[in-house]
């Protein structure tokens, strides 16, 4: 009996010991409310170099994770690494958090998917081909508004020493995560304690736009996190005042949230803080700078008006001119068409602006004119431009659309609306005077305040047409309808045809010759189907059935010619030192020579006009060579996220942008959007 009892006790002890030993593994195997995934930017890091890893965290709906300093409750993530020999992992860098107050306590949280980034250094002594699989045990806190759960998981990523190759998709993904990281401020701020009040001074130029800023203090035992923050501007200093809670001293680390997920990491040293100035982020109780909003809105309207004179808009003027001429002197028809045109321009600008804001909120690094950074959009525009060109040339008549009005080429409300929509869609990618700064303000304004600025751009674009429709004195100066309109219509087919050729060239640049050939084949088939199934134009009325064949043969000949001379892959920026990158810029500035950086795109006609008329002129290049100017080119044709961030850093989300770095200067000079050879020669000291 005693032996049976001892046997049972031994077995029970073994079971308890097994459960004790297996408990950690069992706990790590449990499902988590925030799913972690360790990802490497390069699966083959090169010995002697550094690669980046990301711990992507995906909270369930209603759950959130925490910043490195969780605030009044909560804590960040800790990892116990199991790193191979020769591999060093730096601390994780956190994206900009959100402030969440629950039960009177301030939490610094992430309620949506987020990623922590860390640099991984591979020692030079590691042999190529060595297995460098990296693993660790991660601990974090997951919470809702009611409960909190400490969570743990094993994280791992397979690595093998190699050449450091990074796949384009991986680079794009990591660039989007890097854009969410705070950028380090190049100067230290100051902080002081006055009784129960803490005061911080952030050295931030008064030209920097802000929308509802917040200071997240990383240093513990210093600040009452839930206390209101009074933020004001005193010249080039941003002053933050709040309540103290703790006795920490010495340097203070913090993060200043700006807007749209952007932020600045700041180191504060003890020192004097200037007096408070003009309040920031309290205009009308909605958290925006009203002066910035009205300035940006006025700039967008005026910039849209000036845009009518830019080269990129000229082809669309043919459609405007035909609509105006067709309206003649009949007041009601002119007003209806002018209002419809205005509505089309404004609605399209709002839709583009809304899509831009939605993409940026989703973490995409995009800017104004993103619609021309994708071959599918360019192809749609190419088909439309070709169809309108042939219609203006008299090859066929477009089918009725909306009460008998032809799409973008007929009169009436529908025709006016679609003409305005097309003008906004094609014209707005070009950035003229005032427009770049106005659109740049949308980077720091909340969405509800940014959308009217996009609408203002459409209104400015439509103002001339609107004035003609409602001001009889202007309308009466227009020529009366007559036979001349037929010849004028054919003449206006020329700029639209040039637009179609420009779009074909852009499509070729983005997709290569193979893609262009396929597109031309598709267009040829489409034109053949149109000629077969519809009763279009004089060629069918006069039994001239050879027109589709001629058009298709022309398109096929053009495609084959381009295919013979074109590369089989999209053209890309040069890989030498003239291509812009943050590293190339730092290297160029370290030489002590002047540096000229310009951001351009193949679809931006004003960019190309500046390049041909100023940058590439012999006199300018001679002056640059004499002064030793280093020129860097940022090609934004395909929407490079690195360039998108560079534009945003200078308050822009469109091209062109021209920067001049004088030797020794801390910040660049932003040059006008319309360049002249004299200006560049003067900058070079010629």
Short recap of the structure:
42% of the residues lie in helices and 21% in strands.
Task: State the separation between the terminal residues, measured CA to CA.
Answer: 108 Å
Largest sheet: 9 strands, mixed
SS content category: alpha+beta
What is the oligomer described by this structure?
A: single chain
Count of alpha/pi helices: 19
Shape: globular
Q: Estimate the strand proportion.
A: 15-25%
User: In terms of per-residue confidence, which ranges show pLDDT below 50 for 5 or more consecutive residues?
Assistant: 11-29, 282-287, 398-410, 532-547, 559-577
Overall helicity: 40-55%
Number of strands: 25
CA-based gyration radius = 31 Å
Number of domains: 5
Q: What is the residue-mean pLDDT, rounded to a whole number?
A: 76
Note the main attributes of this structure.
5 domains; Thioredoxin_domain; Immunoglobulin-like; nine-stranded mixed β-sheet; 686 residues; 19 helices; globular; 25 strands; four-stranded antiparallel β-sheet; alpha+beta
Task: Describe this entry's structure for a reader.
With 686 residues, this protein is an alpha+beta fold. It has five domains: 1-30; 34-181, Immunoglobulin-like (Sandwich); 184-279, Immunoglobulin-like (Sandwich), CATH 2.60.40; 290-565, no CATH class; 582-683, Glutaredoxin (3-Layer(aba) Sandwich), CATH 3.40.30. Helix content is 42%, strand content 21%. The protein is built from 19 helices and 25 strands. Strand 6 and strand 7 (105-110) form a beta hairpin. The radius of gyration is 31 Å and the shape is globular.
């Amino acid at each position: 009996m005693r032996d049976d009892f001892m046997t049972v006790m031994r077995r029970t002890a073994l079971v308890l010991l097994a459960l004790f030993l297996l408990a950690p593994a069992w706990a790590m195997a449990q499902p988590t409310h925030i799913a972690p995934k360790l990802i490497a930017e390069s699966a083959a890091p090169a010995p002697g170099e550094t690669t980046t890893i990301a711990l992507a965290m995906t909270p369930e709906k209603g759950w959130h994770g925490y910043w490195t300093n969780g605030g009044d409750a909560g804590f960040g993530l800790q990892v116990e690494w199991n790193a191979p020999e020769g591999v060093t992992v730096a601390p994780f860098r956190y994206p900009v958090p959100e402030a969440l107050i629950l039960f009177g306590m301030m939490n610094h949280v992430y309620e949506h998917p987020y990623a922590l980034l860390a640099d991984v250094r591979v020692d030079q002594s590691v042999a190529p081909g060595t297995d460098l699989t990296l693993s660790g045990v991660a601990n974090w806190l997951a919470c809702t508004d009611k409960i909190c759960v400490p969570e743990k998981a094993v994280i791992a990523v397979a690595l093998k020493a190699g050449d450091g190759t990074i796949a384009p998709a991986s680079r794009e993904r990591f660039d989007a995560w890097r854009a969410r990281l705070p950028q380090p401020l190049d100067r230290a701020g100051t902080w002081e304690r006055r009784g129960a009040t803490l005061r911080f001074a952030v050295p931030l130029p008064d030209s920097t736009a802000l929308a509802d800023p917040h200071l997240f203090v990383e240093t513990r035992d210093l600040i009452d996190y839930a206390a209101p923050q009074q933020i004001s501007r005193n010249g080039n200093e941003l002053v933050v005042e709040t309540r103290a809670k703790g006795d920490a001293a010495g340097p203070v680390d913090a993060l200043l949230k700006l807007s749209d997920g952007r932020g600045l990491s700041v180191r504060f040293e003890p020192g004097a803080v200037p007096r408070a100035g003009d309040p920031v982020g309290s205009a009308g109780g909605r958290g925006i700078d009203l002066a910035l909003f009205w300035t940006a809105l006025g700039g967008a309207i005026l910039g849209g008006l000036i845009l009518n004179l830019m080269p990129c808009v000229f082809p669309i003027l043919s459609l405007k001119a035909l609509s105006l001429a067709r309206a003649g002197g009949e007041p009601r028809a002119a007003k209806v068409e002018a209002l419809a045109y205005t509505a089309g321009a404004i609605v399209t600008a709002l839709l583009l602006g809304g899509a831009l804001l939605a993409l940026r909120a989703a973490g995409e690094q995009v800017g104004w004119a993103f619609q021309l950074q994708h071959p599918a959009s360019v192809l749609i525009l190419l088909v439309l431009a070709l169809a309108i060109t042939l219609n203006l040339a008299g090859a066929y008549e477009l089918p009725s659309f909306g009460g008998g009005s032809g799409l973008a080429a007929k009169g009436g409300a529908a025709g006016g609306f679609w003409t305005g929509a097309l003008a906004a869609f094609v014209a707005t990618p070009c950035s003229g005077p005032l427009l770049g700064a106005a659109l740049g303000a949308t980077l720091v304004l909340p969405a509800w305040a940014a959308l009217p600025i996009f609408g203002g751009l459409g209104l400015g674009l439509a103002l001339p047409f609107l004035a003609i429709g409602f001001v009889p004195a202007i309308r009466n100066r227009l020529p009366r309808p007559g036979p001349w309109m037929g010849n004028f219509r054919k003449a206006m087919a020329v700029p639209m045809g040039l637009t179609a050729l420009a779009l074909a060239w852009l499509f070729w640049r983005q997709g290569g010759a193979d893609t262009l050939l396929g597109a031309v084949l598709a267009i040829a088939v489409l034109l053949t189907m149109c000629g077969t199934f519809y009763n279009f134009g004089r060629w069918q009325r006069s039994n001239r059935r050879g027109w589709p064949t001629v058009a298709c043969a022309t398109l096929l000949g053009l495609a084959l010619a381009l295919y013979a001379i074109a590369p089989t892959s999209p053209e890309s920026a040069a890989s030498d030192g003239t291509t812009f990158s943050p590293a190339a810029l730092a290297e160029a500035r370290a030489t002590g020579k002047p540096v000229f950086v310009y951001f351009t795109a193949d679809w931006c006609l004003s960019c190309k006009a500046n390049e041909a008329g100023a940058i590439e002129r012999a006199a300018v290049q001679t002056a640059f060579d004499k002064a030793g100017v280093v020129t860097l080119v940022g090609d934004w044709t395909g929407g490079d996220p690195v360039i998108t961030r560079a534009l945003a850093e200078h308050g822009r989300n469109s091209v062109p942008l021209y920067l001049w770095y004088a030797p020794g200067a801390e910040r660049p000079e932003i040059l006008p959007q319309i360049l002249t050879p004299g200006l560049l020669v003067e900058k070079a000291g010629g």
